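TODO from last week: model DNA-binding protein.
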Amino acid sequence: MSVKSTSTNQVIYGALGCGEDLMEGIIRICKENNLNSGMVTCIGSLDEVGFTVFKLNSENQLDGYAEPTIIKEPVELIQATGFVCIDEDGEHDLHMHGMIERMDSTIQAGHFLRGYNKVCVTVELTIVASPEVTAYRRYNDSLGYKVIQFEDSI
């Protein structure tokens, strides 16, 4: 487990427009502002959404992720939270979970998938970051998943 404390934070406020991909848009904003890590929170509306959840095997143990849930109708993005990080190839990545409300008032949630979440009207967002910390998302053999580790920035 990694824990880092910072004395300086930067806050970015922004909005994404109609047709832009939620996760790609957030990553673009981070690149434009030279952010390698940060916490994102947002609300808004999406034309379509794609997410997944854990699946269990016959012994009720975690067994990776279920097939993606793809909803091709406008939804309200009630709330989404995530961490901007650097992946194993040195590229920007985003680990994001969110809750949406469908037109029939049902609520669904999960691990959002990059490239599947197009903005309907707008998504307003806040990114909190610090130049003192870099988040790295790497595969952890003992867990069997990619996890984020926080390290001092060089």
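Done. The CA atoms of residues 90 and 144 lie 20 Å apart.
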